[in-house]
UniProtKB/TrEMBL annotation:
Pathway(s) annotated for this protein in UniProt: Cell wall biogenesis; peptidoglycan biosynthesis
Protein known as: Lipoprotein
Ranges of residues in domain L,D-TPase catalytic: 40-195
Keyword field: Cell shape, Cell wall biogenesis/degradation, Lipoprotein, Peptidoglycan synthesis
Pfam families per record: YkuD
Active site residues of this protein: H160, C170
Organism: Streptomyces plumbiresistens
């Protein structure tokens, strides 16, 4: 009797409710796994879909998310990152394009100033950014402030350079890892980000 072919490997750590939100055409997924619902600490890992299922590309990286953790219903100023699956279509930064295949908007509008929640300088945080398509219009600069769900639902949620502290709602990783991610993402593979605390993602 012939053995049935093995089922393709799913994205690790994700439950049926989360997996159902991943578009069938997505071939790249950035998975952001928060340590806890109220924690600002998380990890980021990139996966690509193959004939055998989802496979990790490189290692998991440490990251920060919002100061107060995660939420299923993000509101402007709640200091929580939105849980969900969102497409990634646009990038930008203060520094020149490192060679990403995503549309890249360079400009002084990405200059970060001031200090973070732990007194750390924010300078350089937006040297490289990837817009997360939460409450924004895909196909525009990350600096476009169009809010389809209304201003009250927040926005401006990005992947950006880590400043060694919690964010207002974004996800941040080390500069070298941001550059790696920008070079890896391919719009032809319809990349998405899957983000939330581990317990929520496992639903």
């Amino acid at each position: 009797m012939e053995e049935a072919p093995a089922a393709p490997r799913p994205l690790p750590g994700l439950g049926p409710k989360t997996l159902a939100q991943v578009p069938s055409r997505a071939r790249q997924a950035v998975v952001v796994t928060g340590r806890g619902k109220d924690s600002p600490l998380s990890t980021v890992a990139l996966y690509e879909r193959t004939a055998a299922g989802w496979e990790a590309v490189g290692q998991s990286r440490p990251a920060h998310n919002a100061l107060k953790g995660w939420t299923d219903h993000h509101r402007a100023g709640d200091l929580r990152s939105p849980i969900g699956v969102y497409t990634l279509t646009d990038a930008g930064g203060r520094l020149r394009d490192p060679g990403t295949r995503l549309p890249y908007d360079r400009g002084s509008g990405f200059t970060a100033t001031g200090t973070g929640f732990e007194g750390e300088p924010l300078a350089g945080s937006f040297d490289y950014v990837i817009a997360i398509n939460y409450n924004r219009k895909p196909g525009t600069s990350p600096l476009d402030w169009t809010r389809p769900l209304g201003a009250g639902r927040g926005g401006g949620i990005w992947l950006h350079v880590d400043h060694d502290g919690p964010t207002h709602g974004c996800v941040s990783i080390a500069r070298s890892h941001m550059k790696e991610l920008l070079l890896a993402l391919d719009p032809d593979l319809h990349p998405v980000v899957v983000m939330g605390d581990a317990k929520s993602l496992a639903r």
